[in-house]
Amino acid sequence: MLDLLAVQSGTANASLITLAYTLILAFILSSVIAWTYEKTFLGLSYSRNFVQGIVLSSVVAAMVMSAIGDNVGRGLGMMGALSVVRFRTSFKDPRDIMFIFASLGAGIGCGVYAWGAALGGTVAFCLVAFLISRTGLGTKHFFDGMLRFALPNESAPRLAIEDVLRKNLKTYILITMREVDGGARVDCAYQIRLRANKPAAEIIKELSAIEGISDIAFMMQDATTEM
User: Which of 33, 101, 110, 150 stands the most exposed, by the fewest C-beta atoms within 10 Å?
Assistant: First the structure.
């Protein structure tokens, strides 16, 4: 069995098996980070290519650091070569940038043969990511989403809608109301909080049964904040 301590002590002239261990570990750690990103993702702009990029960036970082080693000349040459590359990808979510940094950190740790730091850092990062995802840290909104629809400017449809909302929602509040079609119809928007046993699809179905209602749309709160 390969003595890992012996491997780490001989990193000045890394052997082929040492490089293999480095790249494999970088791949495993970045795959764990990518899996954590997938399981804790809450928005709508999910990208399969981004998840694969998390894994690939770690492997590339490990390869680059292994190539540089302790050679200052190689480091300066690599810096000059990489300065030619222009990365045009923009990140809408700061959380995505943190996952890329975590993957690069794991790859760099593997590339300089600090395998314990890379492993411990990856485990700690993934645990914290799961923790803040499950506890909802930073969540400020009280409502689950916004419900919009148009109805005739008459009292009967309004009473029917109020009855449906009162029976099926935990709480709701009217945020906008405007007349359309020359005052014949009214466009309304509500902030709503769903009951645990009443999904949005059932509420939309009940609203659709009211005569005269149209253009029903429901937008989840996460969709409005994550896009």
Answer: 101
CB 149 within 8 A of CB 64: no
Are 168 and 202 spatial neighbours (Cβ–Cβ below 8 Å)? yes
Q: How far apart are CA 193 and CA 42, in angstroms?
A: 18
Report the alpha-carbon distance of residue 27 to residue 195 in Å, rounded: 42
Sheet of 169-180, strand order? 169-180, 185-194, 145-152, 214-220
Q: Please list the residue range(s) of the chain that carry CATH number 3.30.70.60.
A: 145-226
pTM, full prediction: 0.61
Which tens digit of pLDDT belongs to each residue from 105-162?
A: 999 999 888 999 999 999 999 999 999 888 867 666 567 788 899 989 888 888 888 8
120 alpha-carbon distance from chain centroid: 22
* d(C-alpha 7, C-alpha 198), whole Å: 58
* Rounded-to-integer distance, Cα 106 and Cα 55, Å: 10
Neighbour-count burial of 178, counting CB atoms closer than 10 A to its CB (0-12 exposed, 13-18 middle, 19+ buried): exposed
**What number of CA atoms fall less than 13 Å from residue 145's CA on the CB side?**
16
Distance CA 29, CA 123 (A): 9
